[in-house]
Structure formats: C-alpha cells, structure tokens
Amino acid sequence: MKTSVLLAAMAATIVAGLTFVMAWIAQRSLPRYGFILDALAFAPIAIPA
Amino acid sequence: MIVGAGILVAYLMLPIPIYNTIWILLVAYVTLYLPYGMRFASSGITQIHRELEEVAAVSGAGLGQIFARIMLPLLAPVLLAGWIYVFVLAVRELGASIFLVGPGTHVLGTISLTMWEEGGSYGAVAALGVIQIIPLAIIVAGLRWIELRIQRRAQAAGATTQ
C-alpha cells in the first residue's frame, strides 16, 4: 500500500516535470524538429499493454 | 505487460543493479505514463502564447525566472491535472508491475492478484479494493480542491486587471 502510493506519487511527479520541460522545448526551442521529441514521448503508448 | 517484460530483460542484462528494488518499477511507470503527461503538458503550453515569454525576456528575466514566474503559475492547473491522472493510473497499474515486483516491493495490483490466486478469497480481494479506493479518493479530492482554488484565483486576478 505504502509502496504503491509512494511509487505513484514519484512517477507522477517525474512525469509532470519531464513532460513540462519536454513540451516546452518541443514547442518553443525547436520549432521545426520539435515534433520528433513529441513523437518520441508519445511512442510508449503504441506498445501493446 | 510488454513494457514490463522488456524492462525486466533489459535490466537483467544491463549492469545497473536496480532489479528487485522499487526503482525498476519507477522506470516502468515513467515509461508507461510519459505519453499521457505529454498530452497534458503539450496542450497546456500550446495555450500560452509565446509573447508572454518574449515580454519577460525583454524585461530582463532569465530562463529560470521565466520558468518559475510565468510558465509555472499559468501551467499549474494543467500540471496538477496531469499529476492526478498519472497518479491514479500508476496506483492501479498491474500489467508491467507483475513482472517487476519482488519480495518487499509488492504493489496493490500484484497484492490483490496474489491474494486471489493463493487464498482464493473474493471477499479479501474486494476488501483490498475498497481499502485502495479510500485513500485514493481522499488524495484526489484534496488535489482537485487545490486545482479549483488556483483556477478561481486566476479568474479573480484576470477580472481585476481587465
């Protein structure tokens, strides 16, 4: 129970922070090639669950 | 499930000793839920116009200051919503964690599966489900409350400046 909640909180924090930075870089710093970063972050969803 | 198996094989071969700790589960969860977070953050940043950052930069704000004082307050509700979503998904995660748990690192999904498998008691599993729901509901309700407060404060600030 404690493991689960702790893990979920850590994962959610890392994901929120990482995606914030990634989305910012993808949309602002790399206007032309940002879509590659976006697609890369979107790739894991294509793996069969 | 495929992600779990892949990470299991990868970290058994790589010389990084995180197998059988909670960190391997963390790696799996971050990999699995990155796309969901990305959708949230990406749509949030799209809504904030570039001019806001340019104005801040012209006024002499550094990158860190733009980050902390312009983007973070505007994006806080979006990030919080993404946080809640990933948190709830990660608590009920079973497919990947079933490959990666070990003694001492069991998570709720694998505990309820083990209880069903070994004890065969549906009552105990159902009780665990209820116990799982209660803290989750309290945490999510608290965070939603914070989120609504941030939104309301932002609306009030917008009304006074216009």
Structure report:
The complex is a heterodimer of chains A (49) and B (162). Chain A has 49 residues and is mainly alpha-helical. Chain A has two helices and no strands. The longest helix of chain A is centred in the first third of the chain and has 28 residues, at 2-29. Chain A is flat and about 45 Å long. By secondary structure, chain B is mainly α. Helices cover 81% and strands 0% of the residues of chain B. Chain B has helices at residues 2-13, 22-47, 50-58, 63-91, 97-100, 108-119, 122-161. In chain B, helix 6 (108-119) packs antiparallel against helix 7 (122-161). The mean pLDDT of chain B is 85. The A-B interface holds A 1, 3-16, 18-20, 22-24, 26-28, 38, 41-45, 47-49 and B 1-3, 6, 22, 25-26, 29-42, 44-46, 50, 53, 71, 75, 79, 82-84, 86-88, 90-91, 93, 95, 105-109, 111, 131-132, 135, 139.
The arrangement of helices and strands of chain B along the chain is HHHHHHH
Compute the number of strand runs of chain A.
Answer: 0
Multimeric status of the protein: heterodimer
Terminal CA distance of chain B: 51 Å
Shape of chain A: flat
Please give the largest β-sheet of chain A.
none
Largest sheet of chain B: none
Chain pair sharing the greatest interface: A-B, 33 and 49 residues
Poorly predicted ranges of chain B: none
What is the tally of helical segments of chain B?
7
Rg of chain B computed from alpha carbons, rounded to a whole number of angstroms? 21 Å
Question: What class, by secondary structure content of chain A?
Answer: mainly alpha
| Rg estimate of chain A, integer Å | 14 Å
Mean pLDDT of chain A: 83
Question: What share of residues are in beta strands of chain B?
Answer: under 5%
Category by helix and strand content of chain B = mainly alpha
**Fraction of residues in H or I helices of chain A:** over 70%
What proportion strand of chain A?
under 5%
The percent of residues in helical segments of chain B reads over 70%
In DSSP terms (H or I, runs of 4 or more residues), the helix count of chain A works out at 2
